[in-house]
Amino acid sequence: MATEYAFPDSAAKNADAAAQEFQTEKMSLAMGPSHPSTHGVLRLQLELDGEVVTQCDPILGYLHRGDEKIAENMTYNQFVPYTDRLDYLAPLANNVAYAIAVEKLANLQVPARCEAIRVICCELARISAHLLGLGAYGIDVGAWSVFLYSFEEREKLYKLFEELTGARFTTSYTRIGGVARDVPEGWNERVGKFCDQFLPILEEVLSLLTRNKIFTDRTHGVGIISKADAISYGLTGPNLRGSGVAFDLRKDRPYSGYEKYEFDIPVGTTGDCYDRYLCRGEEMRQSVRIVRQVLANFPVGSYYNEDAKKIFAPRKDKVLTSMEELINNFMITTEGPQMPAGEVYFEAENPKGALGFFIVSKGGGVPYRMKIRSPSFCNLSILPKVCVGSLVSDTVSILGSLDFVMGECDR
Amino acid sequence: MTAPADVTAALQSKFPQATPRPSGDHPALNLPIAEVFAALKYLRDEFAYDFLVDVTAIDNGVDASPRFTTVWHVYSTTGHGYVRLAADCASDEKPLAPSVVSLWATANWHEREAFDLFGIVFENHPDLRRILMWDGYPYHPLRKDFPLAGIQTPLPDIEVGELTGASVKPAPMMGGPFVASSGEMNMTDAEPSAKDESWNERSEKPASA
Predict the structure, then answer these.
(1) Does the residue B97 lie in any domain?
(2) Contact between B182 and A368 using a beta-carbon 8 Å cutoff
(3) pTM here?
(4) Bridge-partner residues for A53, per DSSP?
(5) Do A68 and B22 touch (CB under 8 A)?
(6) pLDDT tens for residues A121-153?
(7) What's the CA gap between B82 and A107, in Å, rounded?
């Protein structure tokens, strides 16, 4: 069913104005795809009655690159860089989610050290993503300074990511069966130092918003999502927890050793924009708590599964000295890590919500079908419901509080 | 909390035509497409599988029949388990599946996506439009007969296309990506090769592109 939008006819309006004291004609407004508050290329086709939104139709696909089609045409390791570009604010977390999904298909365990590195990656990525979310949200509702503080902290995180992965932004750090390289010398201490100095700054950043009159006015009681709606619309991550559902896959279905760490899941009470903001703030504190626990008991051992000779490409020095390793390296590079036939579905708790990979394999090094269940896609689907009846300016506040990424939504 | 084994057993006794589906992880069942709606409602109401994670489809190949399989994943926010249901669409030409928007609102966009990329028509869907590709796009890109590079199509805005002579062109593949093929097949077919060489260093760009 195509939606038709009638634009107001000015002549008819003038003729009508004599008869009516107030204009009640509805106006159609296209917000985006290049609007600062749509955080990328989302377009909202709004229908307005005065300043009140009466209909909201999100139009997606401006960033559709066909990642699922691409995945069907390349080997499992070749797809890792594409996962960076899903939620490009937390590429490390995407890498980890994807690697665990494929390892589940291969029925492969990774050593404790690899799991610990991955947990640190996920949690630092969460801090980095939430900092950007907060900074951008601050700008959306008129608080500039938060952005400046949070970006300074993100810069420190990027330095750590660069030391670990060689890239600041598109990290491509995991491989099927392990990670690309071990942690560099002294990196753990630097992560610990970052945590120590980060917590006081986080309190300072949050104090700029939490009791800020302008911020609370724009977020209190705005964009309320009920518990039932949040579940029905498939919301995940802080957006679902903001509505009071204690849904966190790190607790409910622990992966990568999350069951070993103590942390709390913050949940909201009313499900408005303010609750979602509070959840993100608290999640960063909990992430620091997890990272500190990992660092305190950092396992020794290998950073990849040494038995998975047909899956994890051997180290360079071995390739150049051993015939068998050379053959393995050639086979993994050209034909891809060999997987059994089967179907798996794995979801990880990413900064934006549950990022899922449904992989159908018919054997060999290439997936037959890969479906990416992106949290931003599901989170945005509630917009037609939650925006109706709100003011145009509140739409901006709601969009910011849902904290979505179009790279992941459109895939 | 209900154990996963009980769920499959209960579903199979309630829906005798359900058969176990090979799965690497979660309980999974194949169902006749006509029973999917009732089965999902049953899972939601009786077993607290209250969260619809995903609706998607699999194209089993151009020559396969049934060609399209629709897949549903549900999750229980209290029991913390997944169930996967799959059903083959009856028609290969015009695949149909039941819409579950009346059970979960999130199905709306998932079904629009499966319609957009696979061409599966979800019956009783309130607003079945394309979601990622633009309205009026003539193909369903995730079907196996759709080439990786894409197919030349007119611009979404016909008027702009007519004025400028521009169109949506296939991507230059330059002989890549260089990959092996999946599945059990002979070495010649499985060995790594470029998937799409319609336009690369050796063969000229097609005149129409």
Answers:
(1) yes
(2) yes
(3) 0.86
(4) A48
(5) no
(6) 999 999 999 999 999 898 888 888 888 999 999
(7) 18
